[in-house]
Amino acid sequence: MKIGIMDSGIGGLTMLKACLAHLPKHEYLYYADSKNAPYGIKTKEEVYDLTASAVDFLIKKNCDIIVIACNTATSAAAEGLRKIYDVPIIGMEPAIKPALELAKGKRVLVTATKLTLSQSKFTDLIRNFDLNQQADLLALTELVTFAEMGNFNEQEIILYLKEKMAHLDLTLYGSVVLGCTHFSLFKTCFEAVFPLEIAIVDGTVGTTNRVKEFITFQNEIPSVTYYLSGEHLVEGEHLSRMQHIVAIK
Fold first, then answer.
1. Quick one: 249 exposed, middle or buried, by C-beta within 10 A (0-12, 13-18, 19+)?
2. What pLDDT does residue 34 have?
3. Looking at the annotation, which residues are catalytic?
4. Range of the domain at 152
């Protein structure tokens, strides 16, 4: 099948990577809207329009399934776009339910962009699952900028995380939710900041399982095609960087 995956930039490569690992025999189109990143500092209306443009592009490329591999875009646009298109549109949301289960009674730190944390879709998740009020919320929107600038300097990222979490007692937490696909690119930095026994959770597993539900056939020759805000990438720095991220074990 032809599966289109879009994100505000390179963060959704973590979703592409998970799909390639568990659903390899398919044709993938990856749309990185890096020219308009980050989405997390834009208005809901701006994010909706950008997401709609990317989804429309992928549907015109005859994709059978669309994955919005961006928590911010999912919150702002997924529900509305499902009313327009017949193609399955699968979104991502912070993995609050599994994080609460893994926390074993301790607190849960939910990290995401500022816009994601402010959306009704997110507040509904908290209300439905965080019955004992275990979750604390922390906006880390700057991580998106680090990723899109290609800044993966672990010392710098760890210092940033420590500064943002200086007011928290990290020993109180049993799990951390990476509520933005870009954040998963810095998982080792989160691991360096938190105690060893903490569970770090993202939404890729749940979303991959959701994609499986819509698979009806496999391709003889799997492939991945990359687009940068609609431009087909056939060579250059952007393509090399994306392919490198997907290839990292």
1. exposed
2. 93
3. 70, 180
4. 96-203
